[in-house]
Request: fold
Amino acid sequence: MDYVELLRQSADYTGNVACMGLDPVMDVLPGEGGFRDRVNGFFEKLFRRMKLEGVSPAAFKPNIGYYVINDRPRDENFEGSQALADVLDMLSSFFPSIPVILDSKRGDIAKSSLNYAKEAFEGWGADAVTVSPYMGSDSVLPFAFADKGIYVLNRTSNPGGRELQNILTIDKVEERDVYPLYIAVAHHIAAWAGEHAGIGAVVGATSMEELKAIVRYYAGKDIPTLIPGVGSQGGSAQDVMGALREASYDVRLSRINSSSGLTHPWKKAPVPEDWLEMCMASLRSLVADTQVKA
Reply:
């Protein structure tokens, strides 16, 4: 099936549109040993508990930077990459029908972009990847693999995003008006999605007016959205769900992400004794706030 259908099916299967970010931080991981051992022990316990309770998000999103920072290639040490491979293997075992979005924010041109696409889809076996659109279609379209998803950075959740994304520009796609750059990018995303099913957008939950404008434009166009910024960044999953429904956007195509708020809500060491229950409580809350059926 194509990526759009995978999103719909996984949303129907889980009953929610939550996305669980998997961004381990060594200093706040429970357990002992090196990075790989601690990541394995942590996620195995958490995934087993999720499976036991029947609690599953509708997508998982590991950020590659949290893993490869622990590699030391010149010392022939690939502990971080090995840990990511372990986590992806666990996801295939515990949650085989749930899409995995590799958050790597790649984007080069031509052959270089194609190399990054092969890294994500053939190397890591991801279902979707995040991509920077700054160099246009030369960056984005090499990622258009059959049945795979592409989340193009559209209006991001970080405070500095407005420095470029809110600049006013004349949009050559619409050719009729001046728009903020994020709207012009949305027009391009919609055009690219007409060529390849599965091209979607990263739209932050921390800028609700911008989010509302973007999802109104995407409504009815089968364009997936990945919505970070919920939780510690200040966004509200309930507000996002309300905005999606108000815009008549198919909520099953959205994935509302929380990362540290789910995997280490205690934020800093020391790790509390009830860490597993804290993670589960945060996950249950996000799942409850992102139910497909209102």
